[in-house]
Design a protein that fits this description.
The complex is a heterodimer of chains A (127) and B (155). The radius of gyration of chain A is 19 Å and the shape is elongated. The N and C termini of chain A lie far apart (62 Å). With 127 residues, chain A is mostly helical. Chain A has four helices and no strands. In chain B, a hairpin with a 4-residue loop joins strand 5 (81-84) and strand 6 (89-93). The mean pLDDT of chain B is 95. By secondary structure, chain B is mainly beta. Chain B is built from one helix and nine strands. Classes of the chains: A mainly alpha (127), B mainly beta (155). At the A-B interface, helix 2, helix 3 and helix 4 of A face strand 7 and strand 8 of B.
Chain lengths: 127, 155
């Protein structure tokens, strides 16, 4: 077996294993996420010893997720699965396009955020 | 020493691109985010594997961390991506982390590692810059417009 053949065999084995791994993300939980985006319930951290997080409205789902990101995530994960199953040029192009659309959806949602390496946790500071 | 900066784990990134061929695929969602206390002493040159020393865990966030496949809103995937952004740079990014119903005390950093690899190989540590806690609430990380990290490959 040549090195190139070994690489291709490894790629196929990894792709198959990933698609069959229940710990992976196929398919995306689009319905669940869409319902939460529509409802936009509280998602605050709560305050230790004081406010329970379930009643903390300092943050909501909209701070973390948009419908655009949910839709783009579904398309990206579907395209990723198709590419893993069949690494054709067409599927590669579709995968890259879906990836770029997801990146754009995130950028749109993050308007106004900083550009540092670390953005920190949304959880409220202790104490 | 304590958690003072963010960083990538250099030894593992070398192993990805040399004859070791360490199989860290950044698009995997079996990678886990584990939380760390400020007392942790990361060494980005020599640390290789995850361990539970100085780990922060609690209700809704087990020791060993939360898998990226269930770390976003509604226990959905964070859908990690690797793109070119800005031009000449490799950017690793994902949907915001939002794990609900957690009770956690004084998390100072998050550490991503490859849980499916035998070595539990470390990938990146993100320093929050302060301690954060929750009380039956959402532990969230809102990533920057520049993603989780970006590597300038054309400096």
């Amino acid at each position: 077996m040549t090195y190139a053949e070994a690489v291709e065999q490894q790629r196929q084995a990894l792709a198959t294993a990933r698609l069959n791994d229940p710990a992976e993300h196929f398919p995306y939980k689009h319905d669940t996420v869409s319902a939460l985006v529509a409802e936009d319930p509280p998602m605050g951290p709560g305050v230790p010893g004081d406010t329970d997080g379930s009643g903390d409205t300092s943050r909501t789902v909209a701070d973390y997720m948009s419908q655009g990101i949910a839709d783009a995530s579904r398309d990206y994960i579907d395209a990723q699965a198709a590419y893993l199953q069949d690494p054709s040029e067409g599927n590669r192009d579709a995968y890259n396009t879906a990836r770029d659309l997801l990146a754009a959806a995130r950028l749109d949602h993050r308007a106004g955020r900083g550009e540092g390496f670390v953005v920190g946790a949304a959880a409220r500071r202790a104490g | 020493m304590s958690v003072t900066v963010s960083g990538l784990y250099v030894a593992n990134f070398i192993d990805v691109v040399d004859a070791t061929q360490l199989a860290i695929d950044l698009s995997l969602t079996s990678h886990k985010l584990a939380l760390l206390a400020v007392a942790a002493t990361p060494n980005f040159s020599t640390d290789v594997s995850w361990s539970n020393t100085n780990e922060v865990a609690g209700t809704g966030w087990a020791t060993g961390g939360v898998a990226l496949s269930a770390a976003a809103t509604g226990a959905s995937s964070t859908a990690p991506t690797v793109t070119e952004s800005p031009t000449g740079s490799l950017m690793y990014d994902m949907n915001d982390v939002a794990v609900s119903s957690t009770t956690l005390t004084s998390a100072r950093a998050a550490r991503l590692y490859a849980d499916v690899l035998a070595g539990d190989n470390l990938i990146v540590l993100v320093n929050f810059g302060a301690d954060f806690s929750t009380n039956n609430g959402t532990f969230g990380i809102q990533w920057a417009t520049t993603g989780v990290f970006a590597l300038d490959l054309t400096p």
